[in-house]
Design brief:
By secondary structure, this protein is an alpha/beta fold. It has 3 domains: about 1-400, Na+/H+ antiporter like fold (Up-down Bundle); about 420-560, 3-Layer(aba) Sandwich (Rossmann fold), CATH 3.40.50.620; about 565-695, HUPs (Rossmann fold), CATH 3.40.50. It contains 27 helices and 14 strands. Helix 9 (about 155-185) packs across helix 10 (about 195-225) and helix 26 (about 645-650) packs across helix 27 (about 675-685). Mean pLDDT is about 80; it is low at about 405-425, about 540-545, about 665-675 and about 695-699.
Length: about 700
């Protein structure tokens, strides 16, 4: 029956989560709903009678992985500049949340007359304290997922993630104190209150942290002798589960121990985080079981007055976090944006909170509170997981750090759709590099085509950079209907402003033609352009335009694919061979010529390649770079991977621009169809330069 329950939780959790995605619900919400469907509220297949405690060990595994992951986000080097702000905000919002939740729950019970048979005043105080402690926890997974999706970065985002991690650490510690206090006031004990709650509490917390520190040091030691991700996953999981079992045996907090282990590992001077990455591959099915199993504990039929408490709990929790964070920001004299919006980024609540209620339900002396706490917290979790991701996104947007969001608009002129139409959601910073000096006479032109909108400015900038490298002049091409009359001096005004701000004159060419493609080809060939720069199309029919241009011009083509704010300072160049590097290297040289850039070459190989082969290939790459006449300072990273696109997406998180070569064989008619470049372009949220070489770019 346990195996059947396991399969049902996995299958139903995945199915409901996928359905929820169509309604833009977080996956964790789908997992919980799946548990509700399978539990007493639904078809009642998964319950304490049918599976007993057969799946409890998955809860322990999930809690350890969650707490270990929390520790990864408490990296001291990242927190140094924001330490004062983070400390004050975290402490104040934690105090605010605890006070608000305790007061709201207790007053609700008092004024609504909620009664439980056999309960006294001390039991209601204990219930309110337990809910207040759980209310401190915030969902790191939901918050981190949103920040990754919108490519958020900056002091606000760094502070938010740090506060989320601290939140959960405080929740775990305060929860330990509350448990000790509740035991003292509700269970007969010979210990004094001071000893039971404070001294004994601090001792247990210290022991838990010590166990975690030892585990973290062992993980660091063992990882030095582990080479593959499979070994990392196996060794890391073994040590973490051993830590969890020891904590349970010694009556310590496995959550605190796991967090301390992650903290030690991420703050080591070597900062070897391969264990975190390896365990990421193991987590998904465990999390599905964990959250779905938590959903089975939600019996709507038995909620009653607890449903009211669930709403009160949710409202009190978010009120405490918003007001407490605002107060902390004011005390710390933090930027105004933090005081206004950091509290909204703390709405999500899931993993740790669910773990804490499962700890309560598994403690015989606290089981009496579980019947109320479980539905109350799960109701709050459900609401917060519905609203939380949106509030996090809103807060980061207001802070101006949602760099991955682009404005989706359709560009139209005179009711006609432009075949090279691209998104207007483009943000380009003014030219801050030194002005460039054109060579007179020039060696030709670098042609570019775009409509007179934001895209034209960006394409003009890249075209001018390439023209400077090739000792040419940038030439803007506009194809218009025959007989079309327009004020020609203003037709290229935005391109002209951009090019002249960089120190170059602009050559312009107006081509009367019914076909955009034939007009472009005619202008390119007539002027013997050395290079063509075009915008990456969004509409499928536009691929035909690029295909025709590629078929009929003899010079290289660079296609610019936009995303968010356009920067070029940190460049990622993924390659699978030296041949590809030869094709894109002149583009890197052109970019580096305008000023110093941080360039990373990502050399991709199959995961089956022996380490000796990788070392040989890396040496050959370094030798090739050293032999180049125009040397660029680059860093090289060799990666053996089963999924090239995923490896590129991972590395691109720390870059501003991706430069990638297009597949030669498929580029003639379909341009990028079926190529690595096109697949990356569809998935990545970074500005890209896609290089299709049909001849050598002059160096």
């Amino acid at each position: 029956m346990v195996t059947l329950g396991l399969s049902l939780l996995l299958a139903t959790g995945l199915l409901v989560a996928k359905i929820g995605q169509y309604f833009r619900l977080p996956s964790v919400t789908g997992y919980i709903l799946a548990g509700v469907l399978l539990g007493p509220t639904g078809i009642n297949i998964i319950n304490s009678t049918s599976i007993g405690v057969g799946l409890d060990h998955f809860t322990s595994i999930a809690l350890m992985l969650i707490s270990f992951g929390i520790g990864e986000h408490v990296e001291l080097k990242k927190l140094q500049k924001q330490f004062r702000n983070v400390a004050w905000i975290a402490v104040c919002e934690a105090i605010g949340t605890f006070v608000f939740v305790f007061s709201a729950v207790f007053l609700t019970i008092y004024f609504t007359g909620i009664e439980v048979d056999g309960w006294q005043l001390k039991n209601y105080i204990a219930l309110s304290l337990l809910l207040a402690a759980i209310g401190l926890a915030t969902a790191p997974a939901a918050t981190l997922l949103v920040t990754r999706e919108i490519k958020a970065s900056g002091p606000f985002t760094a502070s938010l993630l740090a506060i989320v991690a601290i939140d959960n650490g405080l929740a775990i510690m305060v929860f330990g104190f509350v448990i000790a206090f509740v035991h003292q006031i509700t269970v007969q004990s010979g210990d004094t209150l001071l000893y039971a709650v404070f001294i004994n509490g601090f001792i247990n917390i210290g022991k838990s942290l010590l166990l975690g520190i030892i585990t973290g040091l062992l993980l660091d030691l063992v990882s030095r002798y582990l080479k593959t991700k499979e070994e990392m996953m196996t060794g890391g999981l073994a040590l973490l589960l051993l830590c969890s079992e020891l904590a349970t045996y010694l009556d310590l907090s496995s959550l605190l121990a796991g967090m301390a282990a992650g903290f030690i590992l991420v703050n080591k001077a070597e900062r070897d985080v391969r264990v975190f990455r390896a365990l990421n591959n193991f987590e998904p099915p465990i999390y599905v079981i964990f959250f779905a199993l938590a959903g089975t504990h939600l019996d709507i039929k038995e909620m009653g007055a607890a449903g009211i408490l669930g709403v009160i709990y949710f409202l009190a929790r978010i009120s405490g976090k918003i007001s407490g964070a605002a107060l902390g920001a004011r005390i710390a004299k933090a930027p105004q944006v933090m005081g206004r919006y950091i509290g909204m980024g703390l709405f999500p609540q899931a993993g740790v909170a669910i773990g804490l209620i499962l700890i309560i339900s598994g403690n015989p002396s606290l089981d009496v509170y579980s019947a109320i706490i479980t539905p109350v917290v799960l109701a709050g979790v459900f609401i917060s997981e519905l609203l939380g991701p949106s509030t996090v996104r809103f807060a980061i947007q207001k802070a101006g750090e949602a760099h991955g969001l682009t404005e989706e608009k359709t560009s139209r002129e005179n009711g006609k759709e432009d075949a090279l139409q691209i998104s207007r959601g483009i943000d380009i910073v003014p030219w801050t590099w030194k002005k460039l000096s054109p060579q007179i006479p020039s060696k030709g032109v670098v042609a570019f085509g775009a409509k007179n909108d934001a895209s034209a400015v960006v394409i003009a900038r890249f075209a001018t950079i390439f023209a400077h490298h090739l000792r040419c002049l940038p030439m803007a091409v506009r194809v218009v209907e025959p007989g079309f009359e327009e004020d020609l001096p203003t037709l290229f005004q935005r391109e002209l402003n951009e090019v002249t701000s960089m120190g170059y004159p602009l050559v312009s060419e107006v081509v009367p033609d019914h076909s955009v493609t034939s007009g472009l080809v005619a202008a390119i060939e007539y002027n013997s352009a050395k290079l063509v720069v075009l915008g990456y199309p969004e509409k499928g029919s536009s691929h035909d335009v690029l295909g025709v241009v590629a078929d009929n011009v003899s010079c290289p083509i660079v296609v610019v694919r936009f995303s968010g704010q356009v920067h070029t300072e940190r460049i990622l160049v993924p390659i699978v061979s030296l041949t590809e590097l030869e094709e894109v290297y002149p583009v890197i040289v052109a970019l580096d010529l305008i000023g110093e850039h941080q360039v990373k070459l990502l050399y991709l190989f199959n995961s089956e390649e022996p380490e000796t082969v990788l070392e040989t290939k890396e040496d050959a790459l370094c030798c090739w770079l050293a032999e180049q006449e125009q040397e660029v300072d680059v860093s090289v990273k060799v990666v053996a991977t089963d999924a090239r696109v995923e490896a590129i997406l991972t590395e691109s998180e720390e870059c501003d621009l991706v430069v990638i070569g297009a597949t030669r064989e498929l580029a003639i008619k379909t341009f990028f169809f079926g190529s690595l470049a096109e697949t990356v372009a569809k998935k990545i949220q970074k500005t890209m330069l896609i290089v299709y070489m049909q001849g050598d770019l002059e160096r």
